[in-house]
Amino acid sequence: MLKTKFIVFLLFSFSVNCQELYYPGLDWEQREPESLGFSSEKIKEAIQFAVENENSVNRNLKDAIISVFGYEPGFEIKGPTKPRKGPNGLIIKDGYIIGKWGDVSRVDMTFSVTKSYLSTVAGLAYQKGLFNLDEKLKDYIKDGKFSSHHNKEITWHHLLNQSSQWKGNLFGTFDWADRPPRNLTVGELKVQEIPKPGEAYEYNDVRVNLLSFSLLNVLREPLPHILKKELMDPIGASSSWGWYGYEKSKILLNGEMVSSVSGGGHFGGGLFINSLDHARFGLLFLRNGKWKDKLLLSPEWIKLVQQPSENNESYGYMWWLNKGDRKWEGLSENIYYGAGFGGNFIVIIPDHNLVVVARWIDSLKIDHFIRKVVNAHTAR
Questions:
Q1: How far apart are CA 199 and CA 180, in angstroms?
Q2: How is 140-194 classified by DSSP, letter by letter?
Q3: Residue 20 confidence class, pLDDT cut points 50, 70, 90
Q4: Does 6 reside within a domain?
């Protein structure tokens, strides 16, 4: 009898705790840091640090992209770009805003944070049973992109953790033209030996865009539509965000020309979004895929994206992990984050029930900033 009462008590307590979880509605409630175990003074210091350590990247982002990637063979801006403004961001504790700075409603390019959204769309397809991670793309994409002796061994797992080593040309750009060594000629790049699929990690936007193209062909619906309908609308995101590809990335799908969106802003395009929407997205991950009473994203997928890649302990399924060579010293290995060019970050900190969004911060100082936020926690 006592055991039965104890179980009932536990179930009741769990139910109450679930009901007490705060999720933002149309308006996002702000709380004083002290009310949630944080020092207001230290949170202010952390915010001041973020403001003072703005990324040095040119605010004309088109020029910034060209200055960094313009050396690549045949490089061109293929998708839209947008000038940026100053730093902005949010600190979310237990779902409440305890700190913010700058214009958090401004829509900006977010570069490779887009990859974490692309990975999430893959998760939506995965939880529908549309593919298994160890299945080969040649069984899904029949247009020749995966038909060569080398490419036919590529799996979904390889594409997601950037170990596919795919060889070819996608939307006018060869795989070898993305971030090539500066000491090699085009002729040498064309004939260089590369590892077999799964044998080595290589950050490569052409191959990331190939994942986007493959998902578009499997889902048979534009990826932004999927993201909006199944995730962004349910979490109350604004209608101001957009996800773009290139003029050359349009394909015929269901009788219409549809854009295969890009997984970043390397060639322009990618996700353009404000920090408030980033924070909602991060909160969904912090809450293990649940938003209020609805499970939008499988907890299994959220665990999968945090599994270190075989060839890079710091990288999961298009989320960076606080492990390996990129570990932020003094901070939990449970932290994971989306990161993009110019200092764009969504940082998930499960141990402290925090989500931090930082835009246009010095990328070399993001770990210092996160340490300041975590060290503001007074209720240890």
A1: 18
A2: T--SSTT-STTGGG-BHHHHHTT-----SEETTEEGGGSS--TTS-HHHHHH---
A3: confident
A4: no
Question: How many C-beta atoms surround the C-beta of residue 1 within 10 A?
Answer: 5
* Other residues' Cβ atoms within 10 Å of the Cβ of residue 358: 32
In a domain, 52, yes or no: yes
What pLDDT does 378 receive? Answer: 81
Task: Tell me what pLDDT residue 19 has.
Answer: 52
- Could you report the per-residue pLDDT of 23-62, keeping only the tens digit for each? 999 999 999 999 999 999 999 999 999 999 999 999 999 9
Strand partners, 290: 295
Q: How many domains does the chain have?
A: 1
Rounded CA-CA distance 170/250 in Å is: 11
CA count, 13 A, side-chain hemisphere, 288? 8
233 CA to centre of own chain: 18
Confidence of residue 379 (pLDDT cuts 50, 70, 90): low
User: Which residues is 117 bridged to in the sheet?
Assistant: none
Query: CA-to-CA distance for 363 and 371, rounded, in angstroms?
Result: 14
Average pLDDT (157-178) is 98
Q: What is the pTM of this model?
A: 0.94
Torsion sign, CA atoms 367, 372, 375, 378: negative
Q: Is residue 21 part of a domain?
A: no
For the packed helices 113-127 and 205-219, what is the interaxial angle rounded to 10 degrees?
30
Question: How would you label 147-179 residue by residue, b for 16+ Cβ within 10 Å and e otherwise?
Answer: eeeebebbbbbbbbbbbbbbbbebbebbbbbbb
